[in-house]
Write a structure and sequence with these properties.
It is a single chain. This protein is 47% helix and 10% strand. The chain has 239 residues and is of the alpha/beta class. It has 2 domains: 3-164, P-loop containing nucleotide triphosphate hydrolases (Rossmann fold), CATH 3.40.50.300; 170-233, Helicase, Ruva Protein, domain 3, CATH 1.10.8.60. The protein has a 5-stranded parallel β-sheet, with helices on both faces. Helix 4 (83-86) links the parallel strand 2 (78-82) and strand 3 (102-106). Helix 7 (170-184) packs across helix 8 (190-199). It is elongated.
């Protein structure tokens, strides 16, 4: 693959989306299975793919970013791809990616209706397996419920490990907000985290976005993040 193509595919990963910051016990079994999959070498006939599925907002993107961050810390090469972005690119962008240790593909269901890209992912799947490399793919449905038109790709997805990521509880979301705040160097009190979840959003990504807004504004105004401060800082946001 040409260097220009590699640059076009490169994405800056959020460095706070790690396995440590994926908080809660709801998905602990699935997360531990994914971590073992990344850490264990592929031996002959061993599984080379992992399919994660769940509804929007449960943290699938977080987990594939965590996979790439873990790979990096283990000295492995990786690349995260978004199906939403791939559809606007030529399929030859995938050429040579089997030289990497781990490929992550987010939102495979968005390739529905695009048989050319489905075939390209299927071919990449095969090249990775032949080279003893790994692929982690996410989708919004179980394999047999995906609306992909290429039966061979559906078949490949069902060959590997499969885990469902389920929505976390409000308490786990509060804990996750407080963890992210701590990583940024400030403290969110319990009642403040609870207020955010109860009054603004139960979508984890939206909550993290709010946290970023609050962090920047609190630094600028030299104020602690309290409930009155949240009301003022987020007054322009949709509830």
């Amino acid at each position: 693959m040409k260097q220009d193509d590699q640059l076009a595919l490169s994405v800056q990963l959020p460095d706070d989306e790690t396995f440590d910051s994926f908080i809660g016990s709801t998905n602990v079994g699935s997360v531990e299975l994914l971590q073992r999959f990344i850490g264990n070498p592929i031996k002959q006939n061993n599984l080379s793919s992992f399919y994660l599925f769940g509804i929007e907002g449960v943290g699938k993107s977080h987990l594939i970013h965590a996979v790439s961050n873990l790979a990096d810390s283990n000295g492995l090469s990786s690349l995260c791809l978004s199906a939403a972005e791939l559809r606007s690119l030529p399929v030859n962008m995938l050429e040579g990616l089997e030289s990497l240790d781990i490929i992550c593909l987010d939102d495979v269901h968005l390739l529905s209706g695009d048989i050319v890209w489905q075939q390209a992912i299927f071919d990449l799947f095969n090249r990775l397996k032949e080279q003893g490399k790994k692929i982690v793919i996410t989708g919004n449905q179980a394999v047999n419920e995906l609306t992909l038109e290429l039966p061979d790709l559906i078949s490949r997805l069902s060959w590997g490990l499969i885990a469902q990521i389920k929505p976390i509880t409000d308490e786990e979301k509060m804990e996750a907000i407080q963890y992210r705040a701590q990583q940024r160097g400030f403290v969110i009190q319990d009642e403040v985290a609870k207020y955010l979840v109860n009054h603004y959003s139960r979508d984890m990504q939206a909550l993290i976005d709010y946290l970023d807004t609050l962090d920047k504004r609190s630094i600028r105004e030299q104020r602690k993040i309290t409930i009155p401060f949240i009301k003022q800082a987020l007054s322009s946001n949709n509830h």
